[in-house]
Amino acid sequence: ALTVRFLTRRFIGEYGDMEFIYSHNLTVDGREILFHIWDVPNSQEQAEEGSSEEKRIQWADSFVLVYSICDRASFNILPLKIQFIKAAKEGQSQEKVPIVIVGNKRDLHHQRVVSSEEGRLLALSLDCGFYEVS
């Protein structure tokens, strides 16, 4: 939903469990930037550290990991995913890999099970950026 919103400025409520690669041009500070976004839904059946996940990690230059503030399990999986990304990317170079954690569904505060503070503390402890969005 966040990817489609970023690309089209529209909200679509229903999504399948499919993975897509989107390309998008954006002008930032007078410079044209080409984004390639590999949008991968999290799936419980998906192997935690499978070869397809490693391929995606090697393909990417930066990462936005999204969890639902209404779903503790989607939050709890983040430390393992971030450690896996850092081991794969930072093990090859001395550069820090840009990672941002995003808590989604902020508008559903009445269903919140993960506090903003928990998200901020996790991001701080793992040296990541942090945002909450609707």
From TrEMBL:
<keyword id="KW-0342">GTP-binding</keyword>
<protein>
    <recommendedName>
        <fullName>small monomeric GTPase</fullName>
        <ecNumber>3.6.5.2</ecNumber>
    </recommendedName>
</protein>
<keyword id="KW-0547">Nucleotide-binding</keyword>
<keyword id="KW-0378">Hydrolase</keyword>
<dbReference type="InterPro" id="IPR027417">
    <property type="entry name" value="P-loop_NTPase"/>
</dbReference>
<dbReference type="GO" id="GO:0003925">
    <property type="term" value="F:G protein activity"/>
</dbReference>
<dbReference type="InterPro" id="IPR051065">
    <property type="entry name" value="Ras-related_GTPase"/>
</dbReference>
<comment type="similarity">
    <text>Belongs to the small GTPase superfamily. Ras family.</text>
</comment>
<dbReference type="Pfam" id="PF00071">
    <property type="entry name" value="Ras"/>
</dbReference>
<dbReference type="InterPro" id="IPR001806">
    <property type="entry name" value="Small_GTPase"/>
</dbReference>
<dbReference type="GO" id="GO:0005525">
    <property type="term" value="F:GTP binding"/>
</dbReference>
